[in-house]
Amino acid sequence: MNPAPRLEALGLWARRGAETVLSDVSLELRRGELVLLQGPNGSGKSTLLETLAGLIRPAAGEILLDGESIAGLGADRVARRGLALVHQERHLFGTLSVRDNLALADFGRRPTAGMDSVDATLESFGLERFAATPAGLLSGGEQRLVALARGLRARPLVALLDEPLAALAGGLRDHVLKGVRGMADGGTSVLVVEHDGERVGQYADRSLMLRNSTITEAVLPGGLR
Ligand SMILES: Nc1ncnc2c1ncn2[C@@H]1O[C@H](COP(=O)(O)OP(=O)(O)O)[C@@H](O)[C@H]1O
Ligand SMILES: [Mg+2]
């Protein structure tokens, strides 16, 4: 693994309305590592991901992607540089097959980036058996898995996942995490916000805690690595 930092946030400040949610938050994500981010409700985890992804303009601070500033660029341009924020709710085309939904992954991504084949994506997320099924016939959890696989198919440099396991059944949780681990092993740096830290900890390299605007290195819950 190349230890050079892929994503660095330095002294970030961010507001939501009148409220200062992030004050002087710093964080570093190295290439190909999968990092769990936890913290109490309302501590600013989602705000941090949205700020890194350019959806919220930081009031102060710097964000570097492979050493280049992306702070204030705007979500569109940040996405095209290779940083993907994967939301929970991603709409699928209900009448199209899972395969066809995955094939639609390539808009708004790095123009130069390679893309995994649809077959490889189906396999790494355990979706082979649904390939020909219209997405609208899958359960809510299965649809979320397809949406996640679609978001990651373009192999972003950095993937920020906000509670990807919420409301997923246990078996699907492991499919998601195996797929995400495979992405990290392929070089994508992944930051996962998740309540089910025990489960994520089995796949993650490191664990961080956001509390009172301070990020600290935490013990990896249930970690085996
Ligand atoms: N859309 C919003 N508008 C205004 N304030 C918000 C919004 N979303 C979150 N907040 C506030 O920002 C703070 C951090 O929220 P959030 O980033 O969602 O935390 P977390 O994801 O850790 O639960 C909370 O005090 C919350 O009330
Ligand atoms: Mg949140």
UniProtKB/TrEMBL annotation:
Residues 7-225 form the ABC transporter domain. The keyword Signal does not apply. Belongs to the ABC transporter superfamily. GO terms for molecular function: ATP binding; ATP hydrolysis activity; branched-chain amino acid transmembrane transporter activity. This is ATP-binding cassette domain-containing protein. Pfam families: ABC_tran. One of its GO terms (biological process) is L-amino acid transport. InterPro entries: AAA+_ATPase, ABC_transporter-like_ATP-bd, ABC_transporter-like_CS, BCAA_Transport_ATP-bd_LivF, P-loop_NTPase.
